[in-house]
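User: I'm designing a mutation panel for ParB/Sulfiredoxin domain-containing protein and want to avoid disrupting the core. Could you give me a predicted structure to guide residue selection? Please restate the sequence first so the numbering is unambiguous.

Assistant: Good idea. Sequence first, for numbering, then the predicted structure tokens:
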Amino acid sequence: MKSLPRRALNAARFRGRRAAARGRVTAVALADRATGAARRSVPAPVRLRLSRTFLRPSQSSMVAIDQLLLGAQGGLSPKEFSQATGDLLWPSTPLAAGPHVQLLAADGALTDEQILASPYGQLGLRCLKTSGSYFWADAPAGVVEVARDFLARKESSSYEPRANQSGPADPILVERIRGSEYFGVLDGHHRIALAYAAGETTVPVTVKRTTASTPLQDLLLRMSWLDGTKELYQPLPAPELERGWTLVRQCTDRLEKMQAFLSARGISPGSYLDVASCYGWFVAQMSAAGFLAEGVERDPLAQPLGSAVYGLPASVVHIRQCEDFLAAAGRRWDVVSCFSLLHHFALGRGTIGPAELVRLLDEVTGKVLFLDTGQDHEAWFGTSLAGWDTPRIAGFLAEHGTFDEIINLGPDSDGVGPYAGNYGRHLFACIRH
């Protein structure tokens, strides 16, 4: 009995999306059909219970345009469109920064070629290709025609920013993004963009009662070290992560210490390797600083995430256990970093011991190794890492490496908020002259 309503609703939605891709019905009509079909397929007792959840009518509301994300396109849901186009961040992009608004902001008259080359033109071609709404040979002309009509509506001020207050059959339809203050747009992108171009800051919308997550949120929750928790281990610039997701490690504090040290020592950009590179934030930052930067990370989801969020080529993040990668490297990088990894080996969680990990890191380091690790002053390691303090770690690095200097650059800034009493890990620079 529990699976019947979901199956019926999904089937109705699938049929509705196919019809929408062919331009036969409006978004609101789709919603009504899906709801009605599901209601008719559900037995009466179950129907009564469901009426208090996803079969309830949607809610009308005024929403700030800055809270609206691009959402659905081309008759596909946000997740379907993201998957079909390989664009992980499309559903996470503010509509005000999207291609609809960009087209309206263009200066002067646009040629057909300029329209097709614009983000809006490229979006139109992607939509037609994924939905099959046009014969492909007619697609460019169709995109240009729609774009020119869109631009003409701006010039004639026919944006109707408050259209659904006067009772039309096709309101702007949005859905709440789970764990955030944002909404994904399901229908009405052009009307919102026209309202924004006209100086409006809010628009009337119809908000679905159900909520949805974005593909970025889903990917993060699948990453192996999170175990379903809403924690970020490196900065990720996405609006739906601003509230409800905790940034565990600032990262900027370590980067500033690293760059200041390299500058003071006169070490110019060369090759760089981040061991246990997580999402790839340090790889991206060091690449921007002029380094030929790479990372190694065990979770294969790090590649699509780093590519989408930081623009990293998949080839610069090696998916492998770090100890296996280091043992087989057969080369050195000028600068190597290894953050918050060594203590896992000290706790017996690796395939080798902590001394062997230090030896492997030593072998691949050409000039400087930057390293921090969990320490015994942290509440969660007070017993398990007893004696693993700053002087002990410095001595351990000197004993098992061949570095000429071990310099303590000071603690991180992560021991705040829910992590008070933890972190404050000291960053060491291990130097080879």
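For picking mutation sites, this is relevant: The radius of gyration is 27 Å. The chain is about 40% helix and 15% strand.
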